[in-house]
Amino acid sequence: MYLFYSTEKSRLADAVLHHVIANAVRDDGEAVHLVCGNYRRSRTLLDTALLLDLLDAEGRNMDGILDRIHIIGSFSERHQVRAAELTEELVGRLGGVSAITVQQIAKMFAGKPLVPGVQRGDLGGMASRLKRLGLERGIPVIASCRDGGRGAPVPEPEACGYLMHLANVIVYLRPTPSGAAAHLVKHFDRARVGRRVEFGGYGGLGRITSESMRTLLQEQMVRLREKFRNTLKDDGRRSAFDALWPAWADEQGAMINSDIVSALDLLLLTAVIDNRREIEKLKHGGERRMDED
Amino acid sequence: MRIDGWLLDVGFEDNQAVLWVRDPELGRIRLNEPYYPELYAEPKGAAAEELKASIEEHPGIRSVAVVKRVSTIRRNAESTVLRIGTRGVDTFRDVARLVERLPLVARVYDADLSHELKYLSGRGLTPFGAITVESDGEGVIRSIHAAELGLDAHPPPIHVLSFEADTSRDHGSVTVLDRLMKPTYAFEGETEGVIRDFLDYFVDEDPDVVCAGNASLRLIMRLGHVYESSRFGRLAGSEVELFGGRIHIEPHAWERLGFAGLVERSMFTRVPLRLCADWAAGKCIDARQCYEARRRGILVPRAADYQPVMSLGKLLEQDKGGLILAPTVGLHENVALLDFESMFPNIIVKRNVSYETTGVAGEMEGFIAGFTWDALTRRLHFKHRRRELVKGSEEWMWCEERQTALKENLVVIYGYSGCFANRFGSMDTYMEINRQARQFLTAAMTVANERRFSVLYGNSDSLFLTRLGATGEDYEALAAEIALVTGLPMAVEHVFRYLVLLPQKAGAKVGAVNRYYGITAAGELECRGIELRRRDTPPFVGRVQRQVIEALLTCVSRKEMLTVGKERAREIVDDACRQIGEGDVPAEELKISKVLSRDVGEYVSHGGHVTAANALSMNRLRVGSGDLVDYLYVDAGNANPFRRVAPMRLGEAKPDVAKYQSLVRRAAEAVLSGLKWEWV
After folding, report:
1. Taking CB atoms and an 8 Å cutoff, what residues of chain B touch A79?
2. Three-class DSSP category at B192
3. Cβ separation of B307 and A69 shorter than 8 Å?
4. Which residues of B touch A74 (CB under 8 A)?
5. Which residues in B have their CB inside 8 Å of a CB on A?
6. Is the dihedral of CA B382, B387, B389, B395 positive or negative?
7. Vertex A130: Cα angle to A124 and A135 (nearest 5)
8. Is residue A68 exposed (0-12), middle (13-18) or buried (19+ Cβ within 10 Å)?
9. Which domains, ranges and CATH numbers included, belong to chain A?
10. How far is CA B465 from the centre of its chain?
11. Angle at the Cα of B242 (from B240 to B246), degrees rounded to 5?
């Protein structure tokens, strides 16, 4: 069992989990992902845009790939405890599960209980059951959590002591000016413990945005304007880009309602439609003029 | 003895249910009957008989029986479970906890419901419903019969007394309030005399419902005890317990819904008003679902038992919410707002969408559809009846209060269907309702486009449409045609002379959802999402924004709006800034009011209201989750957050002139932002 943790703001640990999921569904594998969080206290979301980017970057065929990522929502302590049982059922039913990931394993058990009757110790029981399942089936179990805020330079994870005992490998991740650093807190090869690895480019892990499709579309539009449009050499092409903006702003409802999941694909499709509309207008204008002549 | 009256409340004393009934002739009557609460347990890894043998000796258990029951709403098949009867409400919780922890028990049912709900659902009773009871001389119920719920807007003849109390060491006052919470009479003078007089008055009035703030009620209770006067209740920890079956409600619940609305809420929820007056809509729906499930003989699982499991592909494909067509930013003329009437409840009812019917063919009436139909029928009755009455008349008010109370719950039923807190929840049902809603809105758009109307904006169940030269009749005809095509009622909500759809605040040059203002053909101003609609906008700033909008929208043409209107708007803003600068605006007009959504210590980021609440706590004034905090900006740019704001309750403070002037300018800019057409 692996435990990655980082500050909540950097979300590096969650980004690692997204990479794990993308790798797990390679070669027809299946992934079971537990999302633990409650919007009343602290929301936890799977960032589908990042996941799609990671899958897309490897040139995967998207057909059916998303159906091999199975999400179990845990919105209360009781849900999370029961999630172990649901994971067992799912793993048994699916057969080819390559990874079990648990996003923010400890969040639900921090602070005042959301529902009565479940104690902090039950988190250990749930994690233990997942670990046993992983061992029996040969499936890695990878969890993420926040740092607990105490301890320097490497803070402790938010997780309870028993969870730290259960995890075979614990890694602390933190952002650095040049990218991110991973600090090995616990490892079965003791000689490796305490090692720190720097890896460049925050973008290497990917930023978690956890936003709605509407926000993702608008962010993509802004990114295109800042990084693409502004570096176009030709003034006319920049104006042409600007002329697409109203169509993108106006047709977000249609874009969201479609079954296409990539924001860039949706913007390109809308641009094509808008161009077609302009062509039709010009065509009709030309035909009218020919008739008049 | 025969009692014909209205069910006020139900309480419990060990193994007795105590009913309070208001009989117009006999007054408030106490009745009782034996009550032995039950729960159900599903065996795991053992036969039901084995489980039965292991628990039946428990002293808190009165009876155990092996029975067949429907244990899930999605399947009609029966499971073998144990019905465990307890000796009374005092022992119920201990027994439920013990049974739930047994390793031979997979699941418990009906274990976390209130006894009020259990008793009322067992008897098929509705709070404030008319009942006929036969009892013996000691009030023991022999038979009880509930009448059909009527559609009369008049609330039952129940006497309500509203008051507020305030005392210092030697001076006190108790003010009696009318139904609009306006003072009608005040007891004032030396504290002891005031309390004695008020308590005598209370005895004479003998109200069924007491509407008073918790602080006022506690004060009266405490002083009544000090002066050894007759009392009408007692303090039980932080709660106030009223004697004689009287119901206590907080004034804010009364102000929001009125008495008829509160009665309707209690009737919908099927839980006594004493409990449900302040409940959120989700909790009201949960109670009604549990009531209906018990009436249908379906076992009720624990709360928050529902846990969604699905593939990411399905989630992305189906979990899209309602369809929102981005607004076309700018000023538009002659725009109609067409609205599907109660779209989501109608989809549930007309398309029979429910937890057990989603994806299943069959004729069976869906679980949600049943009670949604009941609430929807009642709401539409009161809504339509209201239109026939003189606005502001007593019956108009009752209709308005009732339909508002029902609307509060009806608009949440569909969202709650997929909520994790819903014990019967189903994401499939939630997604199916949304899918159908998107289909209906698309169908409406198609009809509108065929009739050459342009869609300016659409949001889930409404469309903003325009067509050059279209009349009110044209829009009505379009609404009728859409209703015919979709099978859902649609109405023209407004026809706007001018409508301004606003861009997002962040300046992304994209239209903002639900952010607009306009003036209707009848000259009424309609706004959404702008400062003057927000409670945390200082009243003065909100008023200035309204004046700016009026200055623009009362212009006779587009051209005049951009010249004369804009100039008028500038003058209004300049004048408002001058008034702030010269200190002519009272602090009360500049206060910001915000509700604490959680206790002060639980906030991670500290906004103005949290800092103000912290300051109040430091001054030993209690504030917590749900409390309204009023504060002023006094030095908004100060590095010390406690110097930025001042809570109004701590007395006079000098407002930060520059900050308030910037708030006024920002409010005006928000209005004008929609008029910059050439913004791309």
Report:
1. 304, 307, 420
2. helix
3. no
4. 307
5. 100, 303-305, 307-317, 320, 323-326, 328-329, 420-421, 438, 442, 458, 508-511, 680
6. positive
7. 120
8. buried
9. 2-204 (3.40.50.300), 213-292 (no CATH)
10. 31
11. 135
Phi and psi torsions of A169, nearest 5°:
-130, 130
Question: How do residues B254-311 score in pLDDT, each as one tens digit?
Answer: 988 999 999 999 999 999 999 999 999 999 999 999 999 999 999 999 887 788 889 9
**What crossing angle do the helices spanning B214-226 and B191-205 adopt, rounded to 10°?**
110
Can you list the alpha helix ranges (DSSP code H) found in B394-463?
Answer: 394-416, 427-450
Prediction pTM value:
0.84
Token pair 């003036």: residue: B519
pLDDT digits (tens, 9 = 90+) for A157-176: 887 778 888 899 999 998 88
DSSP B551-602: HHHTSSSHHHIIIIIHHHHHHHHHHHHHHHHTT-S-HHHH-EEEE-SS-GGG
Tell me, yes or no, if A66 comes closer than 8 A to chain B by beta carbon.
yes
Contacts of B416 (CB under 8 A, 6+ apart): B281, B282, B285, B286, B422, B425
A240 part of contact set with chain B, CB < 8 Å: no
Its ipTM equals 0.80
Please say whether the beta carbons of A26 and A60 come within 8 A: yes
> What gap in Å lies between CA B322 and CA B312, rounded to an integer?
19
Long-range pairs, A43-49, Cβ under 8 A, ≥24: A43/A210, A44/A14, A44/A103, A44/A104, A44/A107, A45/A210, A46/A18, A46/A71, A46/A103, A46/A210, A46/B312, A47/A14, A47/A18, A47/A206, A47/A208, A47/A209, A47/A210, A48/A261, A48/B312, A48/B316, A49/A209, A49/A211, A49/A216, A49/A263
- Measured between alpha carbons, how far is B545 from B542 in angstroms, rounded to an integer? 5
